[in-house]
Specification:
Elements lengths: L3 E5 L20 E2 L2 E2 H11 L4 E6 L4 H6 L4 H7 L9 H9 L1 E6 L6 H7 L1 H4 L4 E4 L3 E4 L6 H12 L2 E7 L9 E9 L2 E9 L10 E9 L3 H7 L10 H9 L4 E5 L3 E4 L3 H16 L1
Parallel strand pairs: 1-4, 1-6, 4-5, 8-12
Antiparallel strand pairs: 2-3, 6-11, 7-13, 8-11, 9-10, 10-12
Helix pairs in contact: 8-9
Amino acid sequence: MITKCLFPAAGYGTRFLPATKAMPKEMLPIVDKPLIQLGVAEAMEAGMNDIGVISGRGKRAIEDHFDISYELEHQIAGSSKETLLDEIRHIIDTCTFSYTRQVEMKGLGHAILTGERLVGNNPFGVVLSDDYCTNEDSPGVLKQMADVFSEYHCTIVAIEEVPLDQTDKYGVIEGKEIQDGLFKISSMVEKPAPEDAPTNLAIIGRYILTPDIFQIIRNTPPGANGEMQITDAINTQAQKRLVLGYKFKGRRFDCGSLEGFVQATNYVYEGMQS
């Protein structure tokens, strides 16, 4: 069983300036819950209660959010608002949080490598909080992936079909479908031009990685923009051992974009009203 999950959270969130000038983008709320809280709840559902956050300067609000606020608790004790903290209290009581800093912005691969000491020699999940995933009919995306891992014990990336003219925004896989919605990956490419994309199956911000990925990241030369690309490292891993792409059940919102963030907010708010 996988118990550890990393949350890369050191990015600047420049697409949301000026809102993210002093507030971490991971703390942007979808109605009444920050993005990172929604991601932690998804990890917790999958049994991943050891949460590792890779943060940076200006991210103190994340640590404070997953801690007790005694003044606030005192002020609302016995009032109707006290129940509004029930969910975050449950997360705080259930999960253990560890933090480390990514001192240079050198890509997602580097962020994951920075979290090596937080997960050790264990398989682990990775959640990118600005991909908000929801599934009304069955378990969350990470729980679905953990169930696949329990059978195959290998690296798994979550994938979804995207329009062909948008492949240059994603890592894209090529592979053979071995079960309904499950692909044995033969290769991956980071942000290919539409005419060069092998498929329209794009990687989203949910991963389950095996610990050998750390050495592979170290040995992988910098890719696009001189950054350590996790796509390049997993592609190398796929040449040596089984790596799967899982077409998840549910819906994803790209909350790293203004349009996706508004769509997610409207979707959650409408669900609260129904």
